[in-house]
């Protein structure tokens, strides 16, 4: 005697295959692993985007400092314009001002900022070494 199997609609079969309780355990774990890997990659992408933006802002600041240095050298050819070394305390550029008689008349400390919001904390007093010789001796200057 033959047993007759009822005809199962195809969409019911599809629902059974897509239902996680009927999916084999190995396949379900593989999908979970892939989902976790995608989430990890998304976090990495977001972190890299933040780092790229930060690097871009730093590069913009460096370009602005170079532009200011070039402008000062053009406008004040008799003065000595020197960038402050990275990591050194103080501003971005030191301008040693000379009189027409080539006597050093003073020092100007330049700080370049490119920002939407101003902070008065940036106006804090520079270190004492800016005011007492040798403030910032460019190469070739007599001691």
Q: How does this model look, in words?
A:
This protein is α+β, with helices and mostly antiparallel strands and 143 residues long. The protein has helices spanning 10-18, 25-75; strands spanning 80-83, 93-98, 104-110. Helix content is 42%, strand content 12%. It has a three-stranded antiparallel sheet with strand order 1-2-3, covered by helices on one side. The termini are far apart. The model has no long low-confidence stretch (mean pLDDT 76).
Compile the SSE list and pairings.
Elements: H1 10-18, H2 25-75, E1 80-83, E2 93-98, E3 104-110
**Helix and strand string, N-terminal first?**
HHEEE
**Strand fraction:** 5-15%
What class, by secondary structure content? alpha+beta
Which value, in Å, is the CA radius of gyration?
A: 34 Å
Instruction: Profile the largest sheet.
Output: 3 strands, antiparallel
Low-confidence stretches: none
Tally of DSSP helical segments: 2
Q: What's the pLDDT, averaged over the residues?
A: 76
Count of the separate structural domains: 1
Overall strand count: 3
Q: What is the CA–CA distance across the termini?
A: 115 Å
If strands are numbered along the chain, what order do they take across the biggest sheet? Answer: 1-2-3
The helix fraction, in percent, is: 40-55%
Instruction: Sum up the overall morphology in one term.
Output: rod-shaped
């Amino acid at each position: 005697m033959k047993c007759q199997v009822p005809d199962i609609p195809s969409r019911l079969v599809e629902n059974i295959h897509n239902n996680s309780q009927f999916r084999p355990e190995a396949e379900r774990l593989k999908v979970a692993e892939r989902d976790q890997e995608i989430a990890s990659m998304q976090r990495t992408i977001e972190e890299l985007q933040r780092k790229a933006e930060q690097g871009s802002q730093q590069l913009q600041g460096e370009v602005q400092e170079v532009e200011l240095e070039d402008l000062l050298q053009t406008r004040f050819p008799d003065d000595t314009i020197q960038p402050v070394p990275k990591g050194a305390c103080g501003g971005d550029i030191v301008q040693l001002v000379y009189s027409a008689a080539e006597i050093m008349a003073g020092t100007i400390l330049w700080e370049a900022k490119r920002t939407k919001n101003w902070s008065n904390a940036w106006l804090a007093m520079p270190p004492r070494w800016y005011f007492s010789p040798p403030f910032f001796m460019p190469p070739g200057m007599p001691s």
